[in-house]
Amino acid sequence: MNYLDLDITQVRQLIKDKKVSSVQLVKECLNRIEQTKDLNALNEVYADIALKRAKEIDNKIALGEDVGVLGGVPIVIKDNINMVDTKTTCSSKFLQNYVSPYNATVVQKLLDAGAVIIAKANMDEFAMGSSNENSAFGPVKNPIDNTCVPGGSSGGSACTVAAKQCFGALGTDTGGSIREPASFCGVVGLKPTYGRVSRFGVVAFASSLDQVGPLTRTVEDSALMLSVLSGQDKHDMTASTKPVDDYLKDIDKGVKGLKIGIPKQFFNNKLDPQVMQSLTNAIQTYKQLGAEIVDVDLKSVDTALSVYYIISSAEAASNLARFDGVKYGVRAKNYEDLVDLYYKSRTQGFGKEVKRRIMLGNYVLSSGYFDAYYNKAKKVQQLIKSEFINAFKQCDVILAPTTATVAFKLGEKSHDPVSMYLTDIFTVPVNIAGIPSISIPCGKNDKGMPIGMQLMAKHFNEATIFRVANAFEKTTKEGK
Ligand code: GLN
After folding, report:
1. Cys-Cys with 256: which of 135, 290, 320, 466 at CB 3.0–4.6 Å?
2. Dist. CA 274 → ligand 1 center (Å)
3. Considering only CA atoms, which of 393, 396, 392, 436 is closest in space to residue 291?
4. Residue 80 near ligand 1, beta carbon < 6 Å
5. Residue 362 C-beta-side C-alpha neighbours within 13 Å
């Protein structure tokens, strides 16, 4: 048996039943990482730490101790998440030597559940990008076609799961950074409700939008990982105190009687015909499974992209002010005074896209422009949010494409920021509204490139998303 072909749900059982050891799984992942290192999915691999921990887990199992729901399973985390005594670089030259003094809450939760963290994944610098080409450590390649991008900014996390270097990964999603790469690499990616998962110890990009979520091979694995990650946190005031649902309880209940909303604004002429065909087939499958298909109207959703790039850049400009070469970041060597030190450190440390966002953010926040841009964007955000809330009065989930096209070629959009931003057109409305959304594979184009479908639900309704997504995944897998 090739263990790397299995999912988390399967391997965790095999580990528990002592049919395979955690040490063996870690070794297999390390071998696979070595064989596929050209993908450049990982910034750092923790072979020694991971093997030592796997051994500890195996020993506990031998003694009959409980090792947690992810006991012994190799997992990768995005390189903007702190793990004590390891580097958190955000794929930036600026933070290339930064060592985390503590664990992020999500890391602690993974460890408490028995996971073995084996590596940190490459990403777009400070999570800004849609192709993973903005990394100071070089781009990640799409594992299905090496001439294409894996998506971004969690491109390394999606790639490492798709390339079977690990069984699951953590990403972050501010405007689509989990769902877009999941779609491009053919894996499952979930952006939870804003506030469902703690961000303590996760480097902030746009604090009113950022969420951590899992990238996995199956919907059930996604539900399992979210159960581990969710919940309130005394270190993060924005983490909701709402009790966490049992995401696995109703996952096999099917879609009979559920209403699936189709927003016409997402099915426009920008959609690649093969993507359109896949989505149409998916809607048909849901009909056959007994769901009711209804039309929903999200009139203002077209404005979400502009709203997103104003709000996210404004918050990024503020959040990134802390990287000054004094408290954080690599300090420039020669400088005249304090201002010059800031200036030179930031000029040398940040990449082009990050600088663009800081300039954009400071512009929209500057006096004279604040009302015209930032304030207006916050008002339109409320409008978009209320349209989603209204739409969910007519349906249980909303179905839409994740991206308008399949993965594009490396270098194809990297010199045209606006066309890169347009990649996020279908993913950003979800962050603007704060709702949860999953991207699952729903087909392939004629070149074998994966196509992704989003399923969105009301705030804190992840359980419904998993149920609807699982119904599709199970039928299409059986049908293969
Ligand atoms: N592609 C979007 C951006 O560049 C989203 C990034 C993200 O979700 N972190 O801002």
Report:
1. 290
2. 25
3. 396
4. no
5. 8
Residue 478: what pLDDT? 63
Q: Report helix, strand or coil for 213.
A: strand
Q: What is the mean pLDDT of each run of 10 residues along the chain (480 residues)?
A: 95 96 98 98 98 98 97 98 98 97 98 98 98 98 98 98 98 98 98 98 98 98 98 98 98 98 93 97 98 97 97 98 92 95 96 97 94 96 98 98 98 94 96 98 98 98 98 81
d(CA 248, CA 112): 19
Atom of ligand 1 nearest to the CA of 308: 10
Question: Whole-angstrom Cα distance, residue 129 to residue 154?
Answer: 9
Query: Which position among 78, 164, 413, 458 bears the catalytic label?
Result: 78
- Looking at residue 58, which CATH number applies to its domain? 3.90.1300.10
Report residue 189 as tokens.
């990616």
Tell me, yes or no, if 153 is annotated catalytic: yes
What pTM, to 2 d.p., does this model score?
0.97
User: Which among 190, 182, 183, 188 has a CA at the least distance from the CA of 230?
Assistant: 190
Helices (H), 68-149: 105-112
Tell which residue, 377, 361, 208, has the closest CA to residue 305. Answer: 377
What does the pLDDT read at residue 1?
79
The upper half-sphere exposure of residue 313, i.e. CA atoms within 13 Å in the direction of its Cβ, equals 26
Nearest to 163 by CA among 121, 106, 135: 121
Other Cβ atoms closer than 10 A to 92? 29
Print the domain residue range for 154: 1-480
Helix or strand run (H / E) with residue 75: strand 74-78
Please state the domain count of the chain.
1
Active-site entry in 130, 177, 278, 312: 177
Is 5 within 8 Å of 13 (Cβ atoms)? no
| Ligand 1 site-directed mutation target among 123, 134, 177, most atoms within 8 Å of CB | 177
CB of 167 within 8 A of CB of 187? no
Instruction: Answer whether 202 contacts ligand 1 (Cβ < 6 A).
Output: no
| Residue 160 to residue 182: CA distance in whole angstroms | 11
From residue 344, alpha-carbon distances to 276, 323, 349 in Å are: 48, 12, 8
Element spanning 309, H or E: helix 304-319
How far does the centroid of ligand 1 lie from the alpha carbon of residue 298, in Å? 22
Rounded CA separation 466/460 (Å): 12
pLDDT at 477: 82
